[in-house]
Design a protein that fits this description.
Elements: H1 3-12, H2 18-32, H3 36-49, H4 54-66, H5 70-83, H6 88-100, H7 104-117, H8 122-134, H9 138-151, H10 156-168, H11 172-181
Length: about 180
């Protein structure tokens, strides 16, 4: 299951009113169907029913991000993190959004803290590698991608990122070997 799918499933099972959960369920279905504006409307209705519904804030954050409203997305995801501290999936989503908004140092710091707690997590290792690559810290990025590729040999995006780093470093044979695994 994808990071987003896992997060929404977990959050829909969490505490909130029955009406808010129902709007979140419909919002998630509409999100999966690509009906972003309708999805946003359902998540907003959920927040009218329960202003502290983590699933609604998370879902609305994802929808806003897909609609290109990064600042608004970040607001909702940060509320969700505040309401449910320690949720690994939420933290990864916030970090990915920070990267997309150009806040690389902040994303890296969050991811390094997460990696200390979850050293074998593929999503964290991959996203941290991306942040380090953005900061042109190529050796550190490669270390994270290599660790991720060893622990999760089927993580296509990570293998491709590692292959690209090898290619850029002139390590063509290693690049070809990793591209072949994608």
């Amino acid at each position: 299951m994808s990071l987003l799918g896992r997060l929404i499933s977990d959050l829909l099972a969490g505490p909130s009113s029955a009406a808010a959960r129902e709007h979140c369920r419909r919002g998630a279905e509409l999100l999966r169907a690509g009906r972003l504006h309708d999805s946003a409307a359902e998540f907003e209705l959920a927040l009218e029913r329960d202003a502290e519904c983590v699933a609604a804030h998370s879902g609305l954050g994802v929808v806003q991000q897909r609609l290109g409203a990064g600042a608004r997305a970040l607001e909702h995801l940060m509320v969700a993190v505040r309401l449910q501290p320690g949720n690994r999936d939420l933290e990864v989503l916030v970090s990915q959004l920070l990267l997309n908004c150009g806040q690389v140092a902040q994303a890296r710091a969050r991811l390094q803290a997460l990696a200390a707690v979850h050293p074998d997590d593929a999503d964290i290792a991959y996203t941290l590698g991306v942040a380090l690559r953005e900061e042109e810290r190529f050796d550190e990025a490669r270390e994270h991608f290599e660790r991720m590729a060893h622990a999760h040999p089927d993580h296509a995006a990570g293998l491709e990122a590692l292959a690209a780093l090898y290619r850029d470093a002139g390590r063509i044979d290693e690049a070809i070997a990793h591209y072949a695994r994608v």
